Amino acid sequence: MRDTIRFLKGGQIVELEEVGPNETVLDYLRLRARQTGTKEGCGEGDCGACTIALGRLIDGKLVYQPVNSCIQLMAMIDGAELVTVEDLVANGRLHPVQKAMAELNGSQCGFCTPGFVMSLFTLYHAEGQTKSRKAVTEWIAGNLCRCTGYRPIVDAALDSCFESADDAFAWRANETVEKLRQLSDSRDIYIGDKDRFVASPVTLDGLAALYGQHPDATLVAGATDVGLWITKSLRDLPKIIWLGRIQGLDRVEESTAGVLMGATATYQTSELAMSRLSPDMGALWRRIGSKQVRASGTVGGNVANGSPIGDTPPALIVLGTTLELQAKDSSRTLPLEKFFVDYGKQDRQPGEFVTGLFVPRPAPNQIFRCYKISKRFDQDISSVLGAFLFTVMNNKITEARIAFGGMAATPKRAPGAETALIGASLEDPSTWGAGMKALVSDYKPLTDMRASAEYRMETARALLAKALMEASGNSSAQIRLRAPILEAAE
Amino acid sequence: MTLSDTQKEGGHIGEPANMRHVHKPLNHDSAEKHVSGTATYIDDIPEPDGTLHVVPGWARNAVRGRMSSIDLGAVRTAPGVVAVLTAKDIPGINDCAPAMGDDPVLAKDEILFYGQVVFAVVGTTRDAARRAARLAKIEVEPSTPIISAEDAVAADTTVLPDYQFRRGSPETGMTAADTVLSGVLQVGGQEHFYLEGQVAMAIPEEDGGMLVHSSTQHPTEIQHTVAKVLGIPDALVVAEVRRMGGGFGGKESQANQWACLAALAAASTGRTCKIRLDRDDDMIMTGKRHDFRVEWQIGHDGTGRIRAVDINFLARCGYSADLSLGVNDRTMFHADSSYFYPDAVIRSRRLKTDTCSNTAFRGFGGPQGMLSAERMIDAIAITLGKDPLEIRKLNFYDADRNLTPYGMPVEEHEVMKDLFGQLEESSSYWERREEVKAFNAQNAVLKKGLALTPVKFGISFTLKHLNQAGALVHLYTDGSVQLNHGGTEMGQGLYQKVAQVVADEFGITIDKVRITATNTSKVPNTGPTAASSGTDLNAMAAKIAAATIKQRLINFLSDLHSCTPEAIAFQDNKVFVGELQFSLAEVAKLAHQARIHMSDAGFYATPSITWDRDSASGRPFFYFAYGASCAEVTIDTMTGEMTVDRVDLLHDVGHSLNPAIDIGQIEGGFVQGMGWLTTEELVWDDAGRLRTHAPSTYKIPAAADIPEDFRVALYASKGNPQETVYRSKAVGEPPVMLANSVFGAITDAVASLNPGVVPNLDAPATPEAIMKAVRAIRQAAPTQGMAGA
């Protein structure tokens, strides 16, 4: 047992004995360490001004990932290297990404700039990136700039981020790896007393025991949702159990049957497996939050919290995803769609926690399509999200699985449309009408700030039509904007 | 980025040849500090011991109604709370309005809009104060709120009197016109979303004085309102700001309330007090760009030449006047875009609604006016079956038809036409028009649109007295220079541009010029940094101050060395006196010994402005800035999704003081305007509560939204015909309206679905708004008899 958290900063190991369960990394930096280079823009992980980099050993290699420090809890950086904008200047010299940003006019008011610099720092250290504007804009989708219009920032990234790393962090990488290994122990962390604590068990059994004792504790995986409960709802969460150090819980295993994702596998680590499942899944994954959100956020956490802003469940549901749950003395498996009982309500018992999800791979005679509609392409929550899985024999639909997000209080299947489409011919659009019509009785969408009920219904029907058009062989390049490359994969 | 040859060479006709900084694409003065996290914003200033934190409290669900009880007991006893302040704790006047006296710092008896501040919690930490602020129990007797422009028209409530420009007889003009078209355009507002939210720190000083660090575009107004609220003389208050993390108009008047609350708390507790708004509070409580309902009617001669125009601008101003007078006047001044209206009536109503008080936002009403003109042109073109570009050119101001509806001549109509023609050529508009037609013929779901639109933006405050500025320049005996002026830095590069001008005036390298924070005790009685005028005014004032000091040195040296003043030159940190050569430090030391005054307060007032609002006559603007933009978009006619595929911009900045900074303003302004017209949607629910108050729900453009193919150039100008600083032109606001081309291109794409029918597309063109227009145009009957269709 350890009652401190430890991390690396500026080459030194920092060990903290006092860590509040709700203390964020941003507050630690600005209020405790008095390092004010990192800025707060929104306090909810949507603007990127507070971006820091966390260096961790992944499969033995040092990897830097961008993280929104405003919603990252201090306990979650245990064992990592914390890099902030202050750490980049070496011997009075600007880091290559800082230099490019300054010289190519990548800053105007400068307030978002440290966040961009840190995102670009992680791109600078990322391996296997192809130099392109698209690669850059995807990488910085979680950083908002209100002054420049981004062009000079993208130029600065193209100018500085695609050569092999040659900075102080690269020079001392071996030393860093060594120090991170030292920090990586298999001791449970428990800071605080029985009423107020932050804990980080390293085994599932340890978690089951601790959660069994404290079923009122808050389980935290990536904190991309829980963080907002703290910063925005001002909820006091006295008992925090962080799952990030539980061995093996972050696994992503691909098989011919499908993909098994542990509860703490992040969107980032599961993205490749998802895009191999289907290009549309990969495209959906890349539009979840931003690089920062995907580096921390987990599918398991999103599902377990029943977050109303989950964009993956409709797709996971049509693919027939199952959920694994465990408690101290029990475990069970259930279809994901059965888990969402009602708005904000899930079928999770006291002391029970999600350990993983299994996403079946579509069969060769199944066609999967997924469409996300939002006001902004990147880092937005869908107004409507439609997912479709058609099983096809002799160009006729033998089974249709259809689910929508944004059309009901929870991600929900469309039983009427699914039934009506059985027997529909992909060659004859006149056989699709019954399915389209049935959506009207399948859903009663609401009007909110993202879209009106009318638009949602109209769009749901349009998305079903698109899916059928594509299933019947129309080129997706003619059916949708920014289509992922589908043909190659199928 | 492309620069004209003359700009590369540096030095235009009539300019000194020794300029080392002016016209050069130098980086922002704070660039290295920005990228290394060492640029200090107000929340980064080390806090004095015992600093307290202020959080505004409000009735979290009330929209409009009388407060029947305010129970702050739980707030006062919450952990960490030092004081709780309400309206009755204000020693002076409870008002922080810029002009009309109608913005209470703390609500007194009535809640006037969703988010109005009722009390302020002062706590030992910001976290403690935030938690305490939520414990208030405020009972409100709700009354039915007036939310939309339509509600306000029905209730006939306004914050300011109606106003109009009238020329000729639009009634006769309409009758004489061959064709009269009409329509309604809804134009949404816009949240500033400066990355640094509203923030202020007040430090009490002796004798009741107050030093206020405020993220503000208008330090003088901070000084005035703080003094007014505290009931102390202006001379006891100093306001200072080194830099803002973005302003865009949102910190012109809207920074006042937070500075006042910090100062009120500091005066009350005797300790330093800081306020930094939470992002949601900021977005709920502060005003935004005005949204409009525009009712338009236009008559033309059958070929597309405009005969008469009648526009009614119905602006939602919110609960108070704020800057709505100037904003709405500017909408009217720009209702012509770049087109000659022979007979016109341009009406404006400033509607009072129970919503946050709308305020300045880059463009200051101009964008809404110009967008309306472009809609009218599109309507003429679409109904005639002609290309909108032809109709634009047909109606441009020219030598014979060059009077705006408010009587100011458009003197540079040749520049406007030349610039537009250049972009028409360089963007390959007509070739791409054919490509767009071919694409649309081949695609059933996706449709492309193309548009090329002009910008003509009037430069000067239309409130005449604001067109003045001061600067304070000191030359020290080691040859270094300290520079101060009344303009504020919000990222636009003002400090850098002014420093370049001062460096070249003294013939010194820019590292010798120390730029200092804007401070009301150094340069008093300043106007806001707004109306794009920051450089025009402050660089001129600073240049005058530097030139005055230099002239004193020249006089001193010519006496000392018995030479003519012409024999003396300042260059490369040296002073040349005939054959002799001195360092500036040597000269400064000698001059000091000789008791020469080496400090000067420069002052500049813009000439030629004669606007008289009461008679609606005279010249409101010193000059116009011009630009043009060509945008190509693709829309998905099944979902309303849209991508901007290519954009070409050409913009006139006169002789650029700093091409790198100007390009940054042009690109940034365009993208901000594009956000306003596409993804940025403010949504109020039926009860009148703003539902989009965080970046999770309010979507400004992200990096992937900028066009894949983005070509930006400065127009090869012959220089501003007016005597501005080095014949440059203002650049802050005009580029926002370059984004009108994106809206025009979306309109064009929708119009392709049913030629001859004018799309009913409102702004912002969200997927839902585009689908609404698509549905309507598909349901409209096909039109017949289009010439050329």
UniProtKB/TrEMBL annotation, chain A:
The keyword Nucleotide-binding does not apply. SUPFAM superfamilies: 2Fe-2S ferredoxin-like (SSF54292), CO dehydrogenase flavoprotein C-terminal domain-like (SSF55447), CO dehydrogenase ISP C-domain like (SSF47741), FAD-binding/transporter-associated domain-like (SSF56176). Residues 190-364 form the FAD-binding PCMH-type domain. Gene3D superfamilies: 3.10.20.30, 3.30.465.10, [2Fe-2S]-binding domain, CO dehydrogenase flavoprotein, C-terminal domain, Uridine Diphospho-n-acetylenolpyruvylglucosamine Reductase, domain 2. Coiled coil: none annotated. Its EC number is 1.17.1.4. It comes from Roseibium algae. The gene is xdhA. This is Xanthine dehydrogenase small subunit. GO terms for molecular function: xanthine dehydrogenase activity. Keywords: FAD, Flavoprotein, Iron, Metal-binding, Oxidoreductase. It is an enzyme of class 1 (oxidoreductase). The keyword Flavoprotein applies.
UniProtKB/TrEMBL annotation, chain B:
It is an enzyme of class 1 (oxidoreductase). Its EC number is 1.17.1.4. Residues 1-12 have a biased composition (Basic and acidic residues). The keyword Nucleotide-binding does not apply. Pfam families: Ald_Xan_dh_C, MoCoBD_1, MoCoBD_2. GO terms for molecular function: xanthine dehydrogenase activity. Keywords: Molybdenum, Oxidoreductase. Residues 1-20 are annotated as: Disordered. Residues 36-144 form the Aldehyde oxidase/xanthine dehydrogenase a/b hammerhead domain. This is Xanthine dehydrogenase molybdopterin binding subunit. It comes from Roseibium algae. The lineage of its organism: Bacteria, Pseudomonadati, Pseudomonadota, Alphaproteobacteria, Hyphomicrobiales. The gene is xdhB.
